[in-house]
Amino acid sequence: MLKKSQEDHLAAVIDAGYHLHKEIGPGLLESVYETVLAARLKRQGLKVVRQMPVDVRIDGLDFANADRVDLFVNDWLVLELKALEKLLGVHIRQTQTYVKLLNQPMGLVINFGSEMYRHGVRRVYSSR
């Protein structure tokens, strides 16, 4: 369960994504949405890390910077952005893996490629 402040941050992220989608619409590269959304979230006072490295430990071996999370917001929210016609299960599982590896309560997938914003937003929890 999220704290009230986390729910507020989550709502701010979803709202900022909505306004960006409404203003620009689908059709641009994921990197454009990432750049603009990160700037808007920072302007709202949220802490945002772009392309945050994710370390992986498998069979006792450490792999530093094995992958990257698009945006990491306020030291707890894993934000994975897409610019695809349709989200697939693999995109949800990718975000679940990031949430688990980073030991965070949840993540959010926002697909800016969806015609309707609400169809492209998914809350994602660890599959522990």
UniProtKB/TrEMBL annotation:
InterPro entries, per database record: GxxExxY
User: What's the protein name?
Assistant: GxxExxY protein
Q: What is the lineage of its organism?
A: Bacteria, Pseudomonadati, Pseudomonadota, Alphaproteobacteria, Sphingomonadales
